[in-house]
Amino acid sequence: MLGRRRETEASSQEVRTIIGLDCVFEGNLTVPGGLARIDGDVVGNIKGSGGLIIGEKGSIKGDLNVENVIVYGRVQGNIKAKSLEIRASGRVDGNIQVEELLIEKGAIYNGQCNMGKGSTEKEYSE
């Protein structure tokens, strides 16, 4: 129930940036607000005050520093966020610093986790 409510909140935000299927983006990306959706490949770091959805075919090789992250695809890098959801089809290989964490059955996570209010200190709002 809690996971469904959060997914509804994230999906109700305006998607402002889309990296489509079969697209490759190399470089750093800033998400100033709203949502960014990654269905292709990103090689580089992503930061900002917005949210990020990595689709089932999406992959990121780099560090993430954003407010909210939902992973259906793959992330190879460290994640710093207020909330992180790793869905059943998702995989994260890297360390995470989050206030809220949801990992669905079937998801894969390899790394160290640091949780708690204040552990992110809103660095993602840069």
Counted beta strands:
16
Please state the overall shape, judged from the principal axes of the Cα atoms: globular
Q: What would the average pLDDT be, to the nearest integer?
A: 88
Strand % is over 45%
Written description of the protein model:
The protein has 126 residues and is mainly β. The chain has one helix at 2-11; strands at residues 15-19, 24-26, 29-31, 35-38, 41-43, 46-48, 51-54, 59-61, 64-65, 68-71, 74-76, 79-86, 91-93, 96-103, 108-110, 113-115. It is globular. The protein starts with a helix and ends in an 11-residue tail after the last strand.
What brief labels describe this structure?
1 helix; mainly beta; globular; 16 strands; 6-stranded parallel beta sheet; 10-stranded parallel beta sheet; 126 residues
Short description:
The chain is mainly beta. 8% of the residues lie in helices and 49% in strands.
What is this structure's SSE topology?
Elements: H1 2-11, E1 15-19, E2 24-26, E3 29-31, E4 35-38, E5 41-43, E6 46-48, E7 51-54, E8 59-61, E9 64-65, E10 68-71, E11 74-76, E12 79-86, E13 91-93, E14 96-103, E15 108-110, E16 113-115
